[in-house]
Amino acid sequence: MNLRVEVVALDCLMVRLFDEISEANMPWMLAASESLRAAFAGHLIDLVPSYTTLMVHYDLTALSPAQARELIAEALIDLSPNACTRGKCHVLPVWYDLSVGPELSLLSRRSGLTVDEVIRRHSEREYQVFALGFAPGFAFMGLVEEALAAPRLNTPRKKVAAGSVGIAERQTAAYPVVSPGGWNLIGRTPAKLFDRERDGYSLMQPGDTVRFEAISHAEFINLGGDDTPLEAQV
Questions:
Q1: 94/126 Cα distance (integer angstroms)
Q2: How far apart are CA 2 and CA 139, in angstroms?
Q3: pLDDT, tens only, 145-195
Q4: In this structure, what are the phi and psi dihedrals at residue 202, rounded to the nearest 5 degrees?
Q5: pTM for this one?
Q6: Within its chain, how far is the Cα of 54 from the centroid?
Q7: What number of other Cβ atoms are within 10 A of residue 112's Cβ?
Q8: CA distance 109 to 103
Q9: 3-class secondary structure for the chain?
Q10: What is the pLDDT of residues 67-104, one digit of tens each?
């Protein structure tokens, strides 16, 4: 761990714990989140975890920047992961099909694997939720094995269907709402990833883990999935 505190805004400090993305970071990130929330208490406006950082947004009318830095330093003294602190484990059903996951064939060619093997490898791994961003409920997960890693599309799509599951580099994610996007699409989940009625809105939170489960077209429809082919959506 290489702790650094950087200024983001007058009332925001970025706590940088690591320099590289790794699943091994997450226990430390969760421990740091808990400690910082306790230290800032009612003076904390928001705490935003990411792959290697925690952004601390605090009440500037209650704390000076110097006091905020002192709280951070005190909170992270002798920091250690708590083995009992674990996020939820989610199983997301996915219909993997070229009509909703057109980059399945691209990943197959790039990796030298069959489409079925691409699906198997993507769905047999458990992924760590590192951060939320880009769109409400959009969870950045990883790490995808090297064989399936692929760069973002050169030209992002103007419209990606809600529930679309994709890969970008060694990350994977599912689009919670209809939006533009440049990830390599490989399937679609019927799961409701963002819900204004849900506590916290997002189905997944940093620290959670996710496993994708391949399902048939009939199961996808029974679960309320929209099987409109990507190219037919306007």
A1: 14
A2: 25
A3: 999 999 999 999 999 999 999 999 999 999 999 999 999 999 999 999 998
A4: -85, 140
A5: 0.83
A6: 15
A7: 8
A8: 10
A9: CCCEEEEEECCEEEEECCCCCCHHHHHHHHHHHHHHHHHHHHHEEEEEECCCEEEEEECCCCCCHHHHHHHHHHHCCCCCCCCCCCCCEEEEEEECCCCCCCCHHHHHHHHCCCHHHHHHHHHCCEEEEEEECCCCCCEEEECCCHHHCECCCCCCEEEECCCEEEEEECEEEECCCCEEECCEEEEECCCCCECCCCCCCECCCCCCEEEEEECCHHHHHHCCCCCCCHHHCC
A10: 999 999 999 998 888 765 668 999 999 999 999 999 99
- The total number of residues written for the chain in this structure: 234
Residues 6+ apart with CB under 8 A from 149: 167, 169, 170
CB 172, CB 226: distance < 8 Å: no
Closest by alpha carbon to 158, among 73, 215, 230, 83? 230
Spatial distance between the Cα atoms of 192 and 203, rounded to a whole number of angstroms: 7
One-letter amino acid of 162: A
Structural domains present in the chain: 4-75 (3.30.1360.40), 89-232 (2.40.100.10)
Angle at 76 between CA 75 and CA 77, to 5 degrees: 100
